[in-house]
Design brief:
CATH class: Alpha Beta
Helix content: 55-70%
Order of helices and strands: EHHEHHEHHEHE
Strand order of the largest sheet: 3-2-1-4-5
Low-confidence stretches: none
Distance between the termini: 12 Å
Strand content: 5-15%
Number of domains: 1
Length: 133
């Protein structure tokens, strides 16, 4: 099985003060036990590293970034021009859902890779029809 990992999950795993920290750690243990492959995007990494830097510390952001670049279980997907254009169309279309542009790029990637589950604490994924892990 493969699931998409969103910024909110990465943040919860890296910030002990995050309201979802305990749940994220429990989910992470399940992922390891069930040998679930993880997919995330360059946009998610950018967002996560930046927020960890300001919420936790520069050192924590560097450690997270290094762990991602050396990971054998996390696949980091780039957002190409086609994905970006589809995400932009989605962003314009769903004015009522308060989606971020990064959310839209995630949904485009999930559709592209036929993923229906996301490790996230962001309800926008559920609103768009995805199962939250």
């Amino acid at each position: 099985m493969k699931i998409f990992v969103d910024t909110s999950a990465w943040l919860a795993l890296n910030d002990r003060n995050d309201q979802y920290y305990k749940k994220a750690v429990a989910n992470s243990s399940r992922i390891k036990k069930d040998r679930i492959d993880l997919i995330t995007s360059e946009y998610i990494l950018d967002e996560t590293i930046t927020i960890i830097r300001y919420r936790v510390s520069h050192q924590a952001a560097v450690i997270f970034g290094e762990s991602m670049s050396g990971s054998r279980i996390v696949r980091i997907e780039d957002i190409n021009e086609g994905h970006r254009l589809k995400a932009w169309e989605m962003f314009k279309k769903y004015e009522d859902k308060e989606l971020s542009f990064t959310d839209c790029t995630s949904f485009v990637l999930m559709k592209h890779f036929k993923l229906n589950k996301a490790f996230t604490f962001d309800d926008h994924f559920r609103q768009m029809g995805y199962e939250i892990f």
